[in-house]
Target: Xylose isomerase
Amino acid sequence: MTDIKAALRAQRIETPSWAYGNSGTRFKVFAQPGVPRDPYEKLADAAQVHACTGIAPTVALHIPWDKVDDYADLARHARELGVGIGAINSNVFQDDDYKLGSVTHPDPRVRRKATGHLLECVDIMDATGSDTLKLWFSDGINYPGQDDLRARQDRLAESLAEVYDRLGEGQRFLLEYKLFEPAFYATDVPDWGTAYAHCVRLGPKAQVVVDTGHHAPGTNIEFIVAFLLREGKLGGFDFNSRFYADDDLMVGAADPFQLFRIMYEVIRGGGFTDEVAFMLDQCHNIEPKIPGQIRSVMNVQEATAKALLVDRDALAAAQAAGDVLGANAVLMDAYNTDVRPLLAGLREEMGLAPDPMAAYAGSGYFEKIAAERVGGQQAGWGA
Ligand code: PSV
Ligand code: MN
Model:
């Protein structure tokens, strides 16, 4: 139990700046009181999540959504709040130029612009001290014949190689794949295999990031996790839940059992280290944002605690004996354990309130930001 608590104490979950801003669907963005008006206020909200949970010390930025004049100053502000800057997320999907793609666009001028943005993101890593660049491309085509599938892979490889060469000591990039959307016929990085092949070719500073919402229904994500870890190519997660497509709902809400299975493979494969980034990539469209993040961090923590509780010796023995039901029972025993008392106790040992949701509700922070943050433009997904 001491080992399990030590592991849980060392856990790090990164929250995304964009979860604190307004977001919605293509039908409606519902504004919420107290929503940050700039990246500085987003960091202040993220600091509350860390203060209540004790395990969310970094915040991912999305550029240009979090564009500021002085990134070193933003990083300083974060440190003063008790958090740090995590992954820098590039954005080459919200400019008119990118209608037909960014780094895979048929026009070299657009490709240059897109790669230029990725290089700018590495500059921001230098200025903020971030060690991780996260690359997701909306690139793809809607119709057969619209562009040359193979040439697009060549263009992608060329851009990735340029960015890879620009990475400094201790920096890496994570390549994110997504089955579909916004392109529907063919996406240029549709699956882990494509991302993996590009990363292998580039070298150790390129790794794959698994966004749990980016697969076809029924995909066995924990298999992908096990495989990538075995190859040393799992760079991190974008955690969220999905019922249908890329729903970006709170992680562990739709399928807590899947989250447990993923965390079990992470632990089994030796990936429960700082080498793998455990990030959230989700939006809170109808629920309040800071508590939404706190709940999500708790969901990952609970799944992790259950995965750590798996009796691996008993599991190995049952597996070796071909005891199908016994092996399954070992896993299910851990999953069915109520870990909430364990985690409440751990938080108290860490000097935190046992219930982060109640701690936030009682902190008065929401009332304060709702009163203070009037006027100005609320920050939003895409703004
Ligand atoms: C794309 O759907 C994605 O998962 C990428 O990580 C983007 O950067 C992020 O969503 C934006 O919310
Ligand atoms: Mn993502």
Observations:
- Residues 18, 89, 136, 176, 178, 211, 238, 246, 281 surround alpha-D-psicofuranose (ligand 1) (CB under 6 Å).
- The chain has 14 helices and ten strands.
- The mean pLDDT is 97.
